[in-house]
Predict the 3D structure of the following.
Amino acid sequence: MTISRRDVLGPALVVIIFLIVGGSASLLLVTPSLRAPSEASYDATRLVLYYSTLPRLATAILAGAALALAGALFQQVLRNPLADPTTLGVSAGANLALVVASLFIPGLLGANRDLVALAGSAAAAAIVLSLGARRGFSPYSLVLSGLVLSLWCGGLSAILTYLNQRYLASLFIWGSGSLSQQSWVIPLSLFWKMAVVAVICALIVRPLSLLDLGDNSSASLGVRVGRLRVIAIGCAVALSAFVTSAIGVISFIGLVAPTLSRLSGARRPGQLIFWSPLIGGSLLFCADAVLQLVAGGLGDFLPTGAVTAIFGSPLLLALLPRLKIRHRIQQSAVWNRPRRSSTATSIVFVAVGLLLAVGVSMVVGRGIDGSLSILSGDVSSDILAIRAPKVFAALASGAMLAVAGSILQRLTGNEMSSPEVLGISAGSTFGVAIGLFAVAPGLFGQFTFAVAGAIGVLAVIFLSSRRSGFSPERVLLAGIALSAMVDAVVGVLSSTGDPRAALLMRWMSGSTYLVDGPTALAEMGIGIVLMTIAFFTRRWLDILPLGPSPTSAVGISLARSRLVLFALAGLMTGAATLTVGPLSFVGLMGPHLAREAGLTRALPQMIGAALIGGALMVVADFLGRTLVSPYQIPAGLVSAMIGAPFLMFMMRKRA
């Protein structure tokens, strides 16, 4: 097979552009140090250049290349264009392992930090792949499992950091990807580890290329498919673990670098594996050099991983309409599952569970001696007046997120769509962060900013996916990109040292601690109004999943109905995020559990999802209040801890 000039010139041009920009920024950065006169044997400026600036640039190139190679291996061996260390949960697993070891077994970090990270990455990969194997390694199951696991690991890391701020506060910037260096130890260590993995990858390039023929055809040509997959995935997991152990989580490089390689002309697997590390290394080098030049003295305190996402997300969104995904993600038949019981019986059963959860949460709590006790005595009314607003605010927020998730899943035909996964909750967080740092608004102002951020993210997803007919893979990719970009901006704001950043971090965790009566009444009122409007759109939601032609044939305006439903989802997400934060996970789990209960039509599914979502948040608020009393774990984080394992267990049961 001949290689066209575009196959080589396109990727090479991308690498050259990133190197020129990054090299120019680096030259401007180091020139003052080179020109500084040396009047003594001890020259602090040159020492900083040789032992901090240059090792940092070398680390950026090596880490970017490693993550890009890991992403290319994952995408090729799993035949999934959305696979990378972030979307598969591998980086999050390594980060959680390092956080747990730092807190409980610090001696392990001194013995071998890489082994701790490798164990976390391997465990995460094993969980995701075991779930995906039951569904034929479909891209849907793999990415959904990875996102669920990433959210769970991130939530648990946040809980540990929240409860042990004195010990783990320094991990915040590192966990977001810090390239700050004080010697050549880390880049030299990364270099020889990458060299070993690169040799293994070079030996398996040809067999990997044969995987495009299919498992049977590859096996007939002498390829041991199972062993090849294990070796390739092992290499990708090792690369991700080494980078996370050295510098923290650098997101998005493993996804955007192979994408740029394909778009610039690298079509064959061998070309993809060759060019992706070069593009990834030059991209991270460029981003970090520009960061140091622009930030000046603050460059060491800004998380490079967050800044990389700010660079990479708009680039991927701009290139998304041109992306031709060879292995398309197929829609799952999620709307026609056989009913196990009648609709009324399922709704009544779920409603009884919700009432039980509300009752227990209202009257049960920790007593003075720390034991669980039922509310009684003269102070019962005072305690109830404090506790009830939190319970009902959690109930309303969980119900709104679950209904928003139901709307988004039916609207896009994508069972992974939810406010959390598509970045809509992150958009609400971004809006509140801007409002908090700019004008310090009250409750109504926060709601306005949150809704504006959510609708802004929805608008970008709508515009970037409209040409493809809202195909699931493009909607998901746009959501991942926007979520990474928004989280990165919030991370940069939080790392500035502004006192308001602590308030933002507490709010992002989803705590109902500061909710009072008026706030709860406002949340309940907004929820009732918006969910009632959503219930009246049941006819649209039943017909839209059938496709554009049937929708137009029955007189429904496709553009208007989509616009209204997107706006409803944005309004509910903005209102709910104010109380439970962006990590609640209810928007993904509520609709799934409603379908498992046999609620397949639009109205019963939304009602069931609202009841399940509200119950889940009430239970999460109760557990957060009682598990580690007198400390209180935010309800949003607790719901993620409950929801993720339960959903993964249900995915494992489904064939």
User: Anything to note?
Assistant: The CA atoms of residues 411 and 562 lie 7 Å apart. The first strand starts at residue 364 and ends at 366. The chain has 26 helices and two strands.
